[in-house]
Amino acid sequence: MNDPEHLSAACAKLLHEKMRRKLTFAEIARHLKHDEVWTAALFYGRATPTHKDIRQLAELLSLSVETLEEDFRSAGPPVRDVGNVAHDPIVGPLRDTLALYAPAIRSVVVENMGDGAISAPHTKVHVERVENGRNSDIRVVLESKYVQYQSW
Question: What does the alpha-carbon distance between residue 104 and residue 118 come to, in Å, rounded to a whole number?
């Protein structure tokens, strides 16, 4: 899923500099004024940076703005294929959980919001650590635009 062989030159540079400088996605996200999940998505070629994002990344990571812009331009549009996540120890169980509870989630959403659809391009994802005594849990929040189906 995070296979460096399939990353664009821009993404490979960003990840290399992130690791070399021992930065976290949260630290980079604060610098960019974006969410850390969106920032990680950018580093893996799943989001599109603005000129301002590229300028701020170049400044933070001491990279050439022109070279980074050209690297992103030559990479083409962001990757939207989700690939095979069945064996990924984090994404696989999330997918399985959504599949398991899909009928229940759909029913509750329709009861509360009316019949409609969730807009994937408008989805924001937030990840939080939740302390529970001896263990740490994780909270994943999906926030998206909801569009009701029209009658005619």
Answer: 15
Alpha-carbon Rg of the chain, whole angstroms? 18
Greater confidence (41 vs 87) lies with: 41
How many other β-carbons are positioned within 10 Å of the β-carbon of residue 138?
A: 10
Give the DSSP letter string of the chain: ---GGGS-HHHHHHHHHHHHTT--HHHHHHHHTS-HHHHHHHHTTSS---HHHHHHHHHHHT--HHHHHHHHHHH-SPP------TT-TTHHHHHHHHHHHHHHHHHHHHHHH-SEEE-GGG-EEEEEEEEETTEEEEEEEEE--EEEPPP-
Summarize pLDDT for 87-122 with one digit per residue, the tens.
Answer: 788 888 898 999 988 989 999 999 999 999 999 999
* Nearest Cα residue to 45 out of 24, 17, 71: 71
Q: Is the full-model pTM beyond 0.85?
A: no
